[in-house]
């Protein structure tokens, strides 16, 4: 790629975590305690999601945060795991690129 060329959308997206396979975007509605959150997902379902142990102490998730949810194999419309949380800078970028709309 030459200096004056602008990187393609795929190149710019490659640096940011996006939903893979069955994962969906979601917005945290309510903290339920014990590492569980009520999340309104982009596919229209409201799921009770848990924060896995590897994220629990490292990432603080609050209400109105945008997250990626991985639905469970069983009860996939009701439960899932939160696998990633976007910060405000990343969320602004997703809005600018047209990937995320409130």
Automatic annotation (TrEMBL):
Any GO MF annotation of the entry: translation initiation factor activity
Origin: domain of life: Archaea
CDD domains with a match to the protein in the record: S1_IF1A
Residues of the S1-like domain: 14-87
InterPro entries for the chain: NA-bd_OB-fold, RNA-binding_domain_S1_IF1, TIF_eIF-1A, TIF_eIF-1A_CS
Protein's job: Seems to be required for maximal rate of protein biosynthesis. Enhances ribosome dissociation into subunits and stabilizes the binding of the initiator Met-tRNA(I) to 40 S ribosomal subunits.
PANTHER family registered for this protein in UniProt: EIF-1A
HAMAP family: aIF_1A
Protein name: Translation initiation factor 1A
């Amino acid at each position: 790629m030459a200096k004056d060329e602008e990187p393609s959308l795929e190149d710019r997206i490659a640096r940011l975590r996006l939903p893979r396979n069955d994962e969906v975007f979601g917005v945290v509605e309510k903290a339920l305690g014990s590492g569980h959150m009520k999340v309104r997902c982009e596919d229209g379902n409201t799921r009770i999601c848990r924060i896995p142990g590897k994220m629990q102490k490292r990432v603080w998730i609050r209400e109105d945060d945008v997250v990626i949810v991985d639905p469970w194999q069983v009860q996939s419309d009701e439960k899932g795991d939160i696998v990633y949380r976007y910060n405000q800078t990343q969320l602004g970028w997703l809005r600018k690129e047209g990937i995320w709309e409130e």
